[in-house]
Design brief:
18 strands; alpha/beta; ADH-like_C; oxidoreductase; 13 helices; single chain
Length: about 375
């Protein structure tokens, strides 16, 4: 595969909102253990929106300049010398990749728990990423795709892996599941729960468009927790403790009504917290069954209090989830996609744009109403 010296790329080139479209950015070089991938499709993540806006997290995290993007699919364009000799990869292979580059030497890496590496670097976050014609990654991060998985699904396997890791952290068969947050990952998690045999799956959010997608993907009930409450004003961007309590109580009432509707008498067995919203987590704690298990993926923007009585006296288990298990999550989601999950969660793939129309794509992705938004680099 012929590779030139320059490529198109979306670059965070200045400490301000927005990205720069660069027509002649240098193609990344590769070391002996790296792979160069010609990107065909890449999807926009919530992390990319933070970088685009250049919010407080991005300001303290993102090196500038940086090629952003970490959810992608493409074809192998070149192999490092050691990769060509040892790895089962060939130029032209259709691949995606794990977005966390780990050190290989810390205790967790050496114990086979790379997803807990304390020295992790993120593709498109700490090192140049995949919103470009080419991305370079270590060979160990590359995942070859079966022919039965289309390119569009290859482009969203990173966030799908988050959903799989979170959902499968606990046994779901026959269980009643509460998912707080119907972003794309929460929506995909609803489909995964249905796919593996959960009984009732209740999803909460404040966006009707995303709740509709959750219903299509397998949710038993999808509840708008803004129902009966006034929409927050701009001054409520950082809610007070009282506001959090009021919102949590309103959400709890809606959830208890849902439990009655479904004939649930004891509470939810499994909670998947995908929102990072304090009131959502508090309403989850209030409606969990004794001995329930919570997988926590959502990241709050700031610290907040909870009622620890709910945790202690109910004997709840709360597990933090970060990224994907390398590489067990990848094997599981590939097989689930081939086994019918792909059709079940198809509605989450809502929008596609040629890469040069990235401004439109980021507007749609940031609207709070879309599922996954994909940039087409081969268009």
């Amino acid at each position: 595969m012929s590779v030139g010296r320059f490529m198109r790329a979306l670059v965070k080139s200045a400490p301000k909102a927005g990205l720069e479209w660069v027509e002649k950015h240098p193609v990344p070089s590769i070391g002996p253990n790296d792979v160069l991938i010609r990107v065909t499709h890449a999807s926009i993540c919530g992390t990319d929106l933070h970088i685009y806006k250049y919010d407080a997290w991005a300001q303290r995290t993102i090196p500038i300049p940086l090629v952003v993007g970490h959810e992608y699919v493409g074809r192998v364009a070149a192999l490092g010398e050691q990769v060509a000799q040892r790895a089962p990869l060939r130029v032209g292979d259709r691949v995606t990749g794990e977005g966390h580059v780990t050190c290989g030497f810390c205790r967790n890496c050496r114990a086979g728990r790379q997803h807990l590496c304390r020295n992790t670097l993120g593709v498109g976050v700490n090192r140049d990423g995949a919103f470009a014609d080419y991305v370079a990654v270590p060979a160990r991060n590359v995942v070859r795709l079966p022919d039965r998985i289309p390119d569009l699904w290859g482009a969203v396997m990173d966030p799908l892996g988050n959903a799989v890791h979170t959902a499968l952290a606990n046994d779901l068969v026959g269980e009643d599941v509460l998912i707080t947050g119907a972003g794309p990952i929460g929506i995909m998690a609803a489909g995964i729960c249905r796919h593996v045999g959960a009984r009732h799956i209740v999803v909460t959010d404040i966006r009707e468009e995303r709740l509709a997608l959750a219903r299509q993907c397998g949710a038993t009930l999808a509840i708008n927790t803004r129902q009966g409450r006034e929409a927050p004003s701009l001054s409520d961007a950082l809610p007070s403790t009282v506001a959090i309590e009021d919102a949590a109580e309103a959400s709890e009432r809606l959830l208890r009504d849902a439990m009655k509707q479904l004939g649930m008498t004891e509470g939810f067995d499994v909670g998947l917290e995908m929102s990072g919203v304090p009131s959502a987590f508090r309403s989850m704690l209030a409606t969990m069954n004794h001995g329930g298990r919570i997988a926590l993926l959502g990241i709050p923007s700031e610290s907040f209090p909870i009622n620890w009585d709910e945790v202690v006296f109910k004997g709840l288990t709360i597990q933090g989830i970060y990224g994907r298990e390398m590489f067990e999550t990848w094997y599981r989601m590939i097989n689930m996609l081939i086994g019918g999950l792909m059709e079940r969660i198809q509605p989450v793939l809502t929008d596609r744009f040629p890469a040069h129309e990235y401004e439109k794509a980021f507007t749609v992705a940031g609207s709070g109403t879309a599922g996954k938004v994909i940039l087409e680099w081969d268009a």
